[in-house]
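Intended use. Records like the one below are meant for learning the mapping from a protein sequence to its folded structure. Do not use them to infer anything beyond what is encoded.
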Amino acid sequence: MTNRTRLLLWTDGAGPYVAAIEAAGLADRVAVETLPRTQQPSDAQKAETEALLAWGAPAGLLPAMKRLRWAQAMTAGVESWLALPDVPAALTLTCARGTHRESMPENILGGLFSITKPYAAVAEDQKQSKWTRRLAIPLAGQTLGILGLGAVGQDLARMAQAIGMRVIGTKRTAAAIPGVEVLPPERTDEVFRQADFLVLLLPATPQTESFVNAERLALMKPTAWLLNFGRGHLIDDAALIAAAANMKIAGAILDVFRQEPLPASHPFWQAKGIHVLPHIGGGHPRRDSVVARLFVENLGRFLDGKPLREVVDRAAGY
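Structure written out for the chain above:
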């Protein structure tokens, strides 16, 4: 037992991760402890843990874990980790980038359909036994703009193309994507101008704070919709509310917010043209199993001294 790597799974419902470790044949190489999120690591766990799986960590904890060499975040976004004032420089931090691919593209498409198809209104008509002819707006032939053509963005692009949409977007690193007009970040304003539906999938970094401001919103078509499935702080809230209220844009679907749960007093709830979603984009019943696949691959690499997947670039912020 003493030769096994000490691993702490600090999450509720650790079962899928324990099962994945066993299925990967790694159980005899690690000493696994599990801890609910409501509890704090014990002094022994702080002293002995070498690898950590967690949603996040409070200030002061990571420096106290003297043997900790690797932490696997359970989310793609790591802004809460990087906001800590004391993340040890030698600690390798990996994220769950790419694990939203099984759900988020479909949920974004659902948002597009909710804008253009009258099913919600028809459901209300049915409650009143009222037959009302309504028209659905075709998505085929319209332009989908995607800011952040990573794994999720590329899957979304492929699905959108399948229903006949034109896709344009930005990617930090130059790489061709079949059928997509890929632009560098410095040409972002072109995407704002051309998109009929603009999807935000950018990470949270100091550079993306209030990225969608009044100036950029003014570039959009008055018939265009904004969909934010990235991070809440990408948007200047007041500027978006004003743009929708003044019909500078058609409206917005928001799945992420600066504060979650969104306070009942926030003006988004009653704002004209703003549709609030309770952060449903990336979640699905099998997500822990998806994250577990990435985690055990990284665990095997960690145990073998090999480079890990999805290492966070602290300078870039993701």
